[in-house]
Write a structure and sequence with these properties.
With 209 residues, the protein is α/β, with parallel strands linked by helices. It is built from eight helices and eight strands. Helices cover 41% and strands 17% of the residues. Strands 4-3-5-7-6-8 form a six-stranded mixed beta sheet. Strands 1-2 form a two-stranded antiparallel ribbon. The longest helix has 24 residues, at 64-87.
Length: 209
């Protein structure tokens, strides 16, 4: 059977842009420019003969066709990920490689992240570093360090310290700030910082702050 389908790159661009309703945030996730994402989406729309987005001055809205298309395309990428991991489990593409500076690592449980069954589902491994550039080159998916910055286009979530303890910075690409992996890591870090997780709230800052 011959499959007449759009290119994978156009589908990836659409799926990311539709999740974030932003070409810029999708571009950060995919490691390309916003213009490249916009061009790929336009190429997809031309090949399908339908508009998938309404382009507004302050963002994007999915058309009815886009809303119908998105769940199926997301499911396709999830199935591709599962199929790939089934034969190449070392890829672990759903799990994060976390960068942790030595100062923070000393304050975490000795067997972090393996101390938590939930966290093992979201973290592949960790490396000791405080180098933000490793995020931009995709060597790590997020970075945990005490203070620092500025982080330019990267997303920053501040986990306040308790008492005299210094706040921690959780830094990642904007497209990853709200994913399940980031949420699981942040929840665990907040629990570690306080016996009452509700007393320590992450402060989310937009890119560039």
């Amino acid at each position: 059977m011959t499959y007449r389908l759009p290119s994978l790159n156009t589908l990836r661009a659409f799926e990311a842009a539709a999740r974030h309703l932003s070409f810029k945030t999708a571009a950060s996730e995919l490691g390309v420019t916003a213009g490249a994402v916009s061009q790929q989406v336009k190429k997809l729309e031309n090949s399908l003969g339908v508009a998938l987005f309404r382009r507004l001055p302050h963002g994007l809205l999915l058309t009815r066709e886009g809303e119908t298309y998105l769940p199926s395309i997301t499911k396709v990428f999830e199935d591709l990920t599962d199929a790939t991991e089934a034969i190449a489990p070392r890829i672990n593409s759903k799990k994060f490689r976390v960068g942790i500076c030595s100062q923070v690592k000393a304050m975490l449980p000795e067997n972090w992240p393996n101390h938590s069954e939930n966290l093992r589902n979201h973290v592949r491994d960790w490396v000791e570093t405080r180098d933000v550039e490793k995020l931009r080159t995709d060597e790590i998916d997020c970075l945990i360090r005490p203070g620092g910055g500025p982080y330019a286009e990267l997303a920053l979530v501040i986990i306040p310290g308790t008492g005299s303890a210094e706040a921690w910075h959780f830094v990642c690409k904007p497209g990853l700030a709200d994913c399940s992996q980031s949420k699981a890591i942040l929840q665990d870090l907040m629990r570690i910082r306080s016996e009452d997780p509700g007393s320590v709230h992450a402060v989310r800052l937009s890119p560039g702050n």
